[in-house]
Amino acid sequence: MSSQPPEPPPPNPTTAHGSDRKLRADARRNRERVLRTAQQLFATEGLGVSLDEIARRAGVGPGTVHRHFPAKEALYLAVATDQIRQLVAEAEALAASSDPAALFTLLSAMMASGAENVAVKSALVAAEFDLRTAAPDVAADLTRHVADLLDRAHAAGTVRSDLTVEEVMALVAGAFAAIRHIGAETSRDRSAHIAQLILDGLRPHPR
């Protein structure tokens, strides 16, 4: 009589799925930690910081960073896209409020975010990356929220009546260029002053 080794018990679906979810959650947390750390380091120390140094500061292994971002350009793009997602979340919160000046709050946040990460945006331009094509859904969401808040501001009379959303987005991009032109990337006061000059130009002129 031949004896065969017992078959291994089938995997417990609940345990397996739970482990998968935990791994996915851990991977997401690690990725977010890397993105936040990279954003801060790029803003304060420049783009020369290495992927290994970002991993060390984020408290993860170098393999984790290289697995998610095999090239520096991939990390630049992810940081810029993540910033837009944060701005979309802020726009959604503002849309849920009744503040007629919410447009100016959002534009201030957009300009501050861009000022802190103008180097990343410049690197993407140099690498011929365009966020509008690389992350079209996220970019479109932000533009849509700006348009909605602009409509609210028009109705409340808190913004020039002849202002279009295309002009608003162009002025925000222009603010980034102006901030970089005078080397104000590392000065929140100077970059905020430029942003305020632009925002003041969007308000109705007194008659």
UniProtKB/TrEMBL annotation:
It comes from the Bacteria. Keywords: DNA-binding, Transcription, Transcription regulation. Residues 28-87 form the HTH tetR-type domain. Residues 1-27 are annotated as: Disordered. SUPFAM superfamilies: Homeodomain-like (SSF46689), Tetracyclin repressor-like, C-terminal domain (SSF48498). Pfam families: TetR_C_43 (PF21597), TetR_N (PF00440). Residues 1-13 have a biased composition (Pro residues). This is DNA-binding transcriptional regulator, AcrR family.
